[in-house]
Amino acid sequence: MEVNKTKNRSINIFVKAGMKYGLLFILYLATAFALSEIVVIGNDYIAKATDSMLAGDGAQIAEILIPLLTMVVLGTITSYISSLCGTHYSTCIQKYVRSTLVGHLLMLPYAYFDEKGSGSVMTKLISDMNEVGRFFSEIMAEFFYNVVTVVTITIYLIQMDARLTLVLYATYPLMLFAANYLSKKIVSITKKRRNSMDDRTETAYDAVQGIVVGRSYNLYHKMKERIYVIIDDIAEQGCRSTKVSSMGFVVKNTLTTIPIIICYLFALNETITGVITTGQMLAFCVLLGRILHPLGDVVFIINDMREAGVALSRLNQIYQEQPEKLGTKQYDVSHVSQNELAIRWENVTFSYDGRNQILNGASFTIRKGENVAFAGGSGEGKSTIFKILCGFYERSGGKFELFGHDFNTWNLQTARNCFSVVSQNVFLFPETIWQNVAYGKIGATKEEVIEACKNANIHEFIENLPLGYDTMVGERGVRLSGGERQRISIARAFIKNAPILLLDEPTASIDVGTESMIQEAIARVSVRRTVIVIAHRLSTILNSDRIFVVSQGEIAEEGTHDELLMKNGIYAGMYGKEVEADAESRN
Description:
There is one protein chain. By secondary structure, this protein is of the alpha/beta class. The protein has 2 domains: 2-320, Up-down Bundle (ABC transporter transmembrane region fold); 336-418 and 529-587, P-loop containing nucleotide triphosphate hydrolases (Rossmann fold, 3-Layer(aba) Sandwich), CATH 3.40.50.300. It is 65% helix and 11% strand. The strands form 2 sheets. The protein has a 6-stranded mixed β-sheet, sandwiched between helices. It has a 4-stranded antiparallel β-sheet with strand order 2-1-4-5, with no helix packed on it. The radius of gyration is 35 Å and the shape is elongated.
């Protein structure tokens, strides 16, 4: 049932947009029909005037001049209104789709971005969205305009001479067959080209983000080679697409030229035999020129529609994804007293791929105000525990309670307000220092930002900058040192003032001088909070109230530093190796 609901949503994103602005589309079709009718009526005036003159009735040009000028004025106004409606309709559709899709994308689970990668997502949002824009602004508008033109003129031609109209459409099946054959080839090529564009964006993004590593290890030629291979593949597919499109252009011209010759000869014969008048033959020839190109275009525009359909399908893939399960409850945790349970896990299991278990029945409890740490080897599940605590991933099984309530019942945004995260991999937005700190609290004042920065031991540094708090930090904070970025992230945690502080070894890559400042700031932000630390260096968690040792996805050991050493188990072995390594490094 959920799958069907998802499919309906993915199909309806464009249908909903069309229905929302359907009045504009109806007006566009009405004006297109009116414009075709004006052309038909104008030709009818000319046909009758021609027959009248050839019959010697002495028709005067002045008699048809005013009606024709009226037709020209009406046609100009109608054409303007039609163009205005079509443009406005396509703009509204694009705006609706973009805003809806981006809004949905922001609500997708963390796992989606972890799996797809930034290159694929960005290509869909930029390249595919541009193709969808072209579809609504050019392809669809031209398609319906041509359909209305063809239908209107065909009705008039049938009334004039049904046999002539039949001759006109006799070659149409051949045109449909050729267009269908070419479109299948184009769609196949387009899918491959857009997948290659995903790879190109991902590779280019990696090259820019990893420029320091690339320069340090002289990977310039290897990275360039990797990008060139992808670009060559895209270029090759582009050439193949161009060849098929060019073939389509030739076929279209051929298939529209042949009917013109045949229809002209047949019309001449119909005139000679008296089936139609000379004026009607003249009108037919004029309208033939008006209908043949739209007739051919309709068929080959379908090719463009199918090619754009690839982009529509790729965007639908985003819209098909289920958003995060937000929950409904917004619990008040202010009444929770010290030493009551803040977090309770019971037999929690988790797997990224559904096969390999990362967590295998992890169980632990953390009291409010307690300072705990998770230690263990690489790949044992420490980081996964953090991701589940923040709701980035949903556990496969077991129980997870936050302040006494099942985590699944929490409104996810409210639950995340209970956590402040300080990681060793700090992310800063390419904005000012003030804005980056203020992101910790909606509506934060300048005074609150300054107070948070003072507590994080970064205020004096900021004040000495030429632009102070208005200093731009650059992409990902590259204009600041690691310690400076870290203290700004701590200031952000201060201003959020969440009851639970998650620390992912924030001093792991910091020099000794800066580490003492960060440790002091962390000590301040930890006051009256529940503190949970991922420990990469055991020397940083010696004073923790409790240490959980994670091994093979389970809590293998639990206790204080001294208690764990006395057990002489996994933790004692890890600590002994770290002490030996530190001693060797000093020697």
